[in-house]
Design brief:
This protein is α+β, with helices and mostly antiparallel strands. The strands form 2 sheets. It has a 6-stranded antiparallel beta sheet. The protein folds into 2 domains: about 1-40, no CATH class; about 50-185, endopeptidase fold (from Nostoc punctiforme). It has helices spanning about 1-10, 20-30, 70-80, 100-110, 120-125, and strands spanning about 50, 55, 60-65, 130, 135-140, 145-150, 155, 170, 180-185. The longest helix has 13 residues, at about 70-80.
Amino acid sequence: MRQARLAWQQLRNPSMVTGFRFAFVLNFVLLGIVPRGLTNSFPSNGPTVPGRYARLRRDVAYAPAKAPLPVKRAIWAANQLRAKPYRWGGGHATFFDLGYDCSGTISYVLAGAGLIASPMCSKELRNFGEHGRGRWITIYARNGHAFAVIAGLRLDTTAWNTRSEREAPRWQLNYRPPKGFESRHPRGL
C-alpha cells in the first residue's frame, strides 16, 4: 500500500518522476497495479426493467427490478465489460484490466456483486459457492472455460454456436447446454 501511495504522489508531481522512479511508476501502470483513486469502480446503479428477468437492449443488459441488489450489481458490472476485448489471462491479476478471458469476466462480475475479493480461475470457480443452479446467478465452470447465467441472460466470452462472432465478454441470448460444466451459485442467490 505504501508503494502504491508513493507511485500516486509521483504521478501527481511529474518533476519527481526521473530515472529509477519513472521505471517504478511505469511498472505500476503496466502491471495494472494502480492506487485506488485511479481505478475504475464497480457500478452501484444502472438500467432496470420491471419483473424478474433481465432484458438485453443494444448489447446492454437491464437488471430486473425485483432482483436482489447483488444480482443487479453483477449485471451492471458485466455491462462495463461489453466493449473490452478477449485477452487470455485478462482479469486474473486484477479486476481492472485491458481485456478479459472467461474466468476474468466471471470474477469481475462476482466482485461487482460483492461476492468475491480476488479473481478466480475456471478451476477455482468449479468450487465457488454452492453446488447446483441458483435462483438468480448460476456459474458454469470446467477446467479451461466458465460462463454464467444471470437473471436469464448468458454472459460468455465465446460465441459457442457460431464462428462469425469474435471472442469477447458479452451478453448472449442463445442457450448453451451445460454438458461437461459444474453448476455453482452464490449462497442465497
